[in-house]
Design goal:
Elements (H helix, E strand, L loop, with lengths): L28 H21 L7 E7 L5 E7 L1 H17 L5
Antiparallel strand pairs: 1-2
Length: 98
Amino acid sequence: MTGSGEGWLNDGLDLPGADSGLWVSGVDYISGWREAREAADRLNRALLGAGLELSAVRVVASTNEDGHGVVRLTGWPAVVDRLSALLETRADSDGGAA
């Protein structure tokens, strides 16, 4: 996803960067990150479609120490509560089906 400026990923939310962990030589972090990035982009588009602002809640691609993709949701508690309510409403209307 793209934002309105260079700092759109860090506008008030503390997100760990590449320097926050130890990288192991020979581990393919890039392919795991790419897979996570595709999933994160898709969910970020869905968050925008639901009327949520990416400055308040967003999904971020990362990898674990083994190079597997990881998708992390981060946001302000009130906005995450709103997202939870939206998902609960959807689950209730579908009888709990995903």
